[in-house]
Amino acid sequence: MSGKQVTGSSNLPVTRVGVLGFGGLGQAAAKVLAPKQEMRLVTAADKHGYAYCADGLDASLCISTYQSQGSVGYLEPFGKLTTESIEELIAVSSLVDGYFLALPNLPNDFITTVAKQFIKLGWRGVLVDAIKRTSAVEQLLEMHEELSEAGITYMTGCGATPGLLTAAATLAAQSYAEIHSVEITFGVGIANWEAYRATIREDIAHMPGYSVETARLMTDAEVEALLDQTNGILKLENMEHADDVMLELAGICPRERVTVGGVVDTRNLKKPLSTNVKVTGRTFEGKISTHTFTLGDETSMAANVCGPAFGYLKAGMQLHKRGIHGIFTAAEIMPQFVR
Ligand code: NAD
């Protein structure tokens, strides 16, 4: 990370942000950043290339290039086509302060490998992911020392769930002396599954009879055939979701008391149900009660993932500036609002 501080038109310090993975969430992230004064998109990468401009990239141009040609690597004059986009990008872009990893976690250790690449190349700064599986977050948590020594502040599980809802559960827990259950139920509505291929594949991996590996190996035609059978609906129960390990680590409750499930409609933007988290516990007076935090139905998955991801990136920047490195979860740090 460079010592030189960039300031925007309002004189707020500007964080130079990179988005790795430019699919559904990556493109939404670029749109979320566009009106921000404190953060600027300077680089984006996909499987076939990357674009980098230290003064800032135009989100709409990146998106139209990706959608029409299949890679931001075609963006003139800032793009480069390469199959090693992440490695090359890290090497050329030392001026990037923080990255949002909007990458598929397929296989289940992919994001861990990416984190190791950042360490190997000697990059210092803040990394944020919206990773979902317990086992994936556990692998990253084991890298605490390595990340710390490398001068990286890594914020994990910082999307919607895990992320926004896990943080809400942490806040709700404060009213209780003992937490009995944390029940997360999400509803997602998207117009077509192709807009979020990795998200849908990773969701299929939670269905009975499927694994991360079988879902990763499914062809698009096989995913479509499965969705045809279910009328485009995926019903998910008792998912392996990192909200459990994050809440356990934060001292809220043992992981067995945390459950996550939901319904995804891949053919309808309207949410099939309202996303919510219910936190049940006993107060110091012995009363049993439930706090419920419900997201507005009009808020999309992208809004509820990308907003928190950048809120945690800002919080991570503040930790990094204070010399605090290593790995932190969405349940232990409060996100900061990005202006
Ligand atoms: P997507 O399939 O739409 O896009 C993935 C992008 O990553 C593509 O641009 C692709 O080119 C790029 N990519 C793949 N391999 C790459 C590589 N080796 N190098 C560089 N780029 C590469 O993905 P999506 O649906 O936006 O999902 C992204 C991630 O976000 C998934 O892991 C998903 O589970 C996660 N997610 C988290 C939450 C949450 O609440 N925590 C919610 C939704 C999605």
Topology:
Blueprint: E1 6-7, E2 13-20, H1 24-33, E3 39-46, E4 49-52, H2 59-69, E5 79-81, H3 85-92, E6 98-101, H4 110-120, E7 125-129, H5 134-141, H6 144-150, E8 152-156, H7 164-172, E9 178-189, H8 197-204, H9 212-217, H10 220-229, E10 233-236, H11 243-249, E11 258-265, E12 276-282, E13 288-294, H12 301-321, E14 326-329
Parallel strand pairs: 2-3, 2-6, 6-7, 7-8, 8-14, 9-11
Antiparallel strand pairs: 1-2, 3-4, 4-5, 9-12, 10-11, 12-13
Helix pairs in contact: 1-2, 1-12
Bound molecules: nicotinamide-adenine-dinucleotide.
Nicotinamide-adenine-dinucleotide binds near residues 23, 105, 196 and 301.
Strand tally is 14
- N-to-C SSE series? EEHEEHEHEHEHHEHEHHHEHEEEHE
> What fraction, in percent, of the residue positions are helical?
25-40%
Tally of individual domains:
2
CATH topology of the largest domain: Rossmann fold
CATH top level of the largest domain is: Alpha Beta
Give the CATH superfamily of the largest domain.
NAD(P)-binding Rossmann-like Domain
Structural class: alpha/beta
Mean pLDDT: 95
Per CATH, the architecture of the largest domain is: 3-Layer(aba) Sandwich
Proportion in β-strands: 15-25%
